[in-house]
Amino acid sequence: MAAEASSIPELIRKKRDGERLRDEEIERFVQGVADGSVQQGQIGAMLMAIRLRGMAAEETLALTRAMAASGRALAWPAGWRGRLVDKHSTGGVGDKVSLALAPALAACGCKVPMISGRGLGHTGGTLDKLESIPGFCAAQSPEQMRRILEQVGCCIVGQSEELAPADRVLYGLRDVTATVDSLPLITASILSKKAAEQVSALVLDVKFGSAALCPTLESARQLAHSLVSVGGRLGMRTAAVLSRMDGPLGRCVGNSLEVLEALQCLEGRGPADLRELVTTLGGLLLWQCGAAASAEQGTGRLARALDDGSALRTFEAMLGAQGVPPATARLLCAGSAPQRCRVLGQAATREELLAPRAGTVRRVEGLPLARVLHELGAGRARAGDAIKPRVGAELLVTAGQRLEAGQPWLRVHHEAAGLRGAQRRALQGALALCDAEPFRPAPRVAQLVLPP
Ligand code: IUR
What we know:
By secondary structure, the protein is of the alpha/beta class. The chain has helices spanning 8-16, 23-35, 40-53, 57-68, 97-107, 126-130, 142-151, 165-176, 183-197, 217-233, 255-266, 272-288, 295-307, 310-321, 326-334, 337-344, 366-375, 421-430; strands spanning 85-89, 112-116, 154-158, 201-208, 237-244, 252-253, 349-354, 359-364, 392-395, 402-403, 408-414, 431-434, 445-449.
C-alpha cells in the first residue's frame, strides 16, 4: 500500500516525537533541502529534532544515501575499481596528514581523489596549506581530476557545488543551530561526500582529546563505529583509527609551516607522531583495498614509499598537475631548507617564548595555541575570508622532555607589531610542565576500529 505522502511539518513532528522516518520520507526531506523547497526554519527544526531524538542505523543510512544522491556522483574508469581510496579526519591542530598520505598511497598504486575543505578551523584546512604554495589550484573539474589520477595517481581538490549539495546546506545550518555534535548528522555529512566520490575504501582518523571534536576516547569510538558501520553498508570498505589530539600533531602549526613539515615526512624524516599516523592510516587502506595482506604489511609498504622517495616524487607531480610551475615544485620538493623557505616565504617576525621555570613537559595544549594563531591570521572566521599563510608556530619541545628555565619552547611566526599580553599569557598557558622524570610520550594511535 502506498503510504500517504506526509508534509514537511508532519515529518518534523514525527522526528520530534521520536518516531522513525521511512526511507522515502528522508529522501523527500533531503530532496527539498537540495532544491530549496524546504524552508530554512523547517530545516533547522528537523536538525534539532534529529539532534535530540537521534536516528536508528537504518535512518542514518537512508539520510546518507539521500544526501549523496542530492548531487552528481563522480565516475571512474572500471579498471580502477578496488583501488580508489580516500581518508577523512575529524580535524585537529597541526593535522597535515593528507599532504603526505595522498601521494604516498598513490606511490603504492592507489588512486586517491581526495576532496578536502578549507574549513573554519582555527588554522586552516588541507587546501589552505596547499594554497600557501605559489600557483596551487584546488578547483578541478571531474574531468581534470580523472586526468590527474591517470597521470599522477592522486589529487587534492575542493568540494564542487555538485558534490552532495544537500550537505552544504545542512552543514551550514548545523553551525548556527547548535546541531553540529549529532552522531547521525556527522556520519551522514562525512559519508555522503565519500559515497558521491565513489571510493572503494575509506579510512577515518577520528581524533579525541582537548583539541578534538570528540572530547573522550569513548565518544570517538561511538562516532567511529557509526562511520565504519554505515560506510560498510554503502559499499565502501571502511576502517577507523582513534587518535589522540591534545597537543598539535608534529611540531608545526600554520599553513606554510605545515607544508614544510609534510615535506619532511615525505622524505622519510620529520616528527615520529606524524609518520606514525600517516603510515597507520595508509597501511589500513592498503590492506582494506587488497594491496597488502595485513594492516601491518600495509604500514611497512607505506613507510617504504616515504623512505624511497617515491611518495615525494608523486607529491611533486601532483603539484605540477595542479598548477604549480614545475621549477617551483622542484625547488620545494628537492631543494634545501633555505630554498624551500624562499618558495613559501616567511612571516615578517619570529618571536620565541621562554620556559617560565624548569620541569618536564607534560604536554602542550593545542587549542590555546590554535586560538592565538587564529587571531594572528592563520585561520578564518567566515567562509571566504583571507588568511595569512605564513603565520604559525613551531614547537621547540616534545612531551616528556626536560626543559630548563628560560629555554625557548615555542617560536611564533607572525605579521603583527608584537604579541599582545593576553596572547602571550594564553600561549604560556598552553605549556604544561610537571616535576616527573622525563618520559616517552604515548603513541598517537590509541585504537583501531575495523569492520566486523
Ligand atoms: N566534517 C564534515 O564533513 N561533516 C561534519 O559534520 C563534520 C566535519 I563535524
